[in-house]
């Protein structure tokens, strides 16, 4: 049985991370799963995000994955710790699940000159305080302000990026964030969907503020992890295959997904939680 690297997101966002992984580690096989039928996850309760994420991880394990990346901040914030501390030791002690928040928070303090950082994310990610807690571990002097952007994922999932509504919410949420701390010089796109809005966000920001996307950071960190863990890396198949699954309509997934992945996609349908 092949053992691809499983990559999971509530919908399309994780493709922005997968794109970078494929670029940096083209030799591995990848199996992407987007739970588009139940996206967005951002406003859902802790228990629901945990349940959905667990179903996805279980599904990917049953497809032969030994390693799954939660390429979703909301799932990383709300489900990863319980999966790593309770679920894996009991059910799959030899398999691994990693998220996107840790690699980002390890680095972000070093990227800022002023020591003032802004985080943009879903309501779930912001309310979990994961970024605040994790950044404090790696760079305790960094000041962190957060802003939830609950409309951004629905705007992206519905391909409404080029509308006046999108422009309104982007402007408004950025204004809110910057009003919390005028010294912010680094803003993290703490949701894997948001890189699709980069050009629109940048238009609203002063030039001295840098935007940080996670794809490259997460891919770098995974490469390093696999180098440090040959016992995991040698279990993974390396035929350069990419497969895509969605819980919603594969035709729509192929169309929209190609924007996120910046390459063509042929997906198949799958069901979770039945
Ligand atoms: N890509 C997910 C994240 O990084 C989107 C969450 C959602 O479905 O609302 O948080």
Describe the secondary-structure layout.
Blueprint: E1 5-9, H1 14-24, E2 30-34, H2 46-62, E3 67-70, H3 73-78, H4 80-91, E4 96-98, H5 101-111, E5 116-121, H6 123-128, H7 130-138, E6 143-148, H8 152-157, H9 164-180, E7 186-189, H10 198-204, E8 210-212, H11 215-228, H12 230-233, E9 242-246, H13 250-261, E10 267-269
Parallel strand pairs: 1-2, 1-3, 2-9, 3-4, 5-6, 5-7, 7-8, 9-10
Helix pairs in contact: 1-11, 5-7
The structure holds D-glutamic acid.
D-glutamic acid binds at residues 9-11, 13, 39-42, 72-74, 122, 125, 153, 191-193.
Account of the protein in words:
- This protein has 274 residues and is an alpha/beta fold.
- It has two domains: 5-99 and 216-269, Rossmann fold (3-Layer(aba) Sandwich); 101-213, Rossmann fold.
- The protein has helices spanning 14-24, 46-62, 73-78, 80-91, 101-111, 123-128, 130-138, 152-157, 164-180, 198-204, 215-228, 230-233, 250-261; strands at 5-9, 30-34, 67-70, 96-98, 116-121, 143-148, 186-189, 210-212, 242-246, 267-269.
- The mean pLDDT is 96.
- Bound molecules: D-glutamic acid.
- D-glutamic acid (DGL) is lined by residues 9-11, 13, 39-42, 72-74, 122, 125, 153, 191-193.
Shape: globular
Strands across the major sheet, in which order?
A: 4-3-1-2-9-10
Oligomer: single chain
* H/I helix tally: 13
Structural features:
six-stranded parallel β-sheet; Rossmann fold; four-stranded parallel β-sheet; 274 residues; 2 domains; alpha/beta; 13 helices; single chain; binds D-glutamic acid; 10 strands; 16% strand
């Amino acid at each position: 049985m092949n053992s691809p690297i499983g990559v999971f997101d509530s919908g399309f966002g994780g493709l922005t991370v997968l794109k970078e992984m494929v670029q940096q580690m083209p030799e591995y096989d990848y199996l992407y799963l987007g739970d588009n039928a139940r996206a967005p996850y951002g406003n859902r309760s802790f228990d629901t995000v945990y349940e959905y994420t667990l179903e996805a991880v279980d599904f990917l394990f049953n497809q032969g994955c030994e390693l799954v990346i939660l390429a979703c901040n909301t799932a990383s914030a709300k489900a990863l710790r319980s999966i790593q501390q309770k679920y894996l030791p009991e059910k799959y002690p030899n398999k691994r699940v990693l998220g996107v928040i840790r690699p980002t928070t390890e680095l972000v303090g070093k990227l800022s000159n002023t020591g003032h950082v802004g985080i943009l994310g879903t309501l779930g990610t912001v309310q979990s305080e994961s970024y605040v807690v994790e950044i404090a571990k790696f760079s305790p002097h960094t000041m962190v302000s957060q802003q939830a952007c609950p409309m951004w994922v629905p705007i992206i999932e519905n391909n409404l990026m080029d509308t006046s509504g999108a422009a309104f919410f982007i402007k408004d949420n950025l204004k809110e964030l910057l009003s919390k701390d005028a010294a912010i010089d680094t803003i993290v796109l703490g949701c894997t969907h948001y890189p699709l809005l980069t050009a629109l966000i940048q238009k609203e920001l002063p030039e001295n503020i840098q935007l940080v996307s996670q794809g490259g950071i997460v891919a770098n960190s995974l490469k390093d992890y696999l180098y440090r863990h040959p016992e995991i890396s040698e279990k993974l198949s390396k035929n350069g295959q990419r497969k895509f699954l969605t819980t919603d309509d594969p035709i729509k997934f192929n169309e929209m997904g190609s924007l996120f992945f910046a390459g063509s996609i042929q997906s198949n349908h799958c069901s979770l939680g039945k």
